[in-house]
């Protein structure tokens, strides 16, 4: 199983008047950069079975942009286990219901994605950091994992935009 972990794009700055933290959407620049990055995502992934996204608007909008580039608009599922502050172990238990799929994308928030990616790689410490719009690919033999997964690549947003 390949798990693609994508951090949401550039959102309205935390503390901006008129926006609660949970309601911060992507900025216009964030949307444009994410659209360009999503073309790169489509180049490196090709196909996806399901896209799981945090319910927060900045992640959900990022998932929609990625899904559009992948031709997978109908494959987005909202996952409350991806809300900020959720535990990686809890998400891995949730992911077990997708154990028969080959390609899963997860769209969420830092630092939680870093902890999830690290846990999938067998580390209890966060060893991976995601910039806004960054994507990594981790292969695991089972879900929940029975050992350390393999990091195939970790692409920064600029690298994804250059792949378009």
Helix/strand layout:
Elements: E1 2-7, H1 28-45, E2 50-53, H2 57-70, E3 76-78, H3 88-95, E4 103-108, H4 112-120, E5 135-139, E6 150-155, H5 157-163
Parallel strand pairs: 1-4, 2-3, 2-4
Antiparallel strand pairs: 1-5, 5-6
What would you say this structure looks like, in words?
It is a single chain. The protein contains 5 helices and 6 strands, in the order βαβαβαβαββα. With 164 residues, the chain is of the alpha/beta class. The protein has one domain (2-163): Phosphoglycerate mutase-like (Rossmann fold, 3-Layer(aba) Sandwich). It has a 6-stranded mixed beta sheet, sandwiched between helices. Helix 1 crosses helix 2 and helix 3 packs across helix 4. The protein starts with a strand and ends with a helix.
């Amino acid at each position: 199983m390949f798990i693609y972990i994508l951090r949401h794009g550039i959102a309205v700055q935390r503390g901006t008047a008129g926006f609660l933290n949970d309601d911060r959407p992507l900025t216009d620049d964030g949307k444009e950069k994410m659209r360009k990055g999503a073309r790169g995502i489509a180049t490196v992934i090709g196909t996806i079975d399901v896209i799981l996204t945090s319910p927060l608007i900045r992640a959900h909008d990022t998932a929609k942009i990625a899904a559009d580039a992948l031709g997978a608009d109908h494959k987005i599922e909202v996952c409350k286990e991806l809300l900020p502050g959720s535990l990686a172990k809890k998400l891995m238990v949730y992911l077990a219901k997708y154990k028969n799929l080959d390609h899963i994308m997860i769209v969420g928030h830092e630092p939680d994605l870093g902890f999830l990616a690290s846990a999938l790689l067998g580390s209890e410490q966060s060893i991976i950091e995601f910039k806004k719009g960054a994507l990594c690919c981790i292969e695991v033999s089972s879900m929940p994992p029975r050992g350390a997964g393999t990091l195939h690549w970790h692409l920064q947003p600029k690298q994804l935009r250059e792949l378009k």
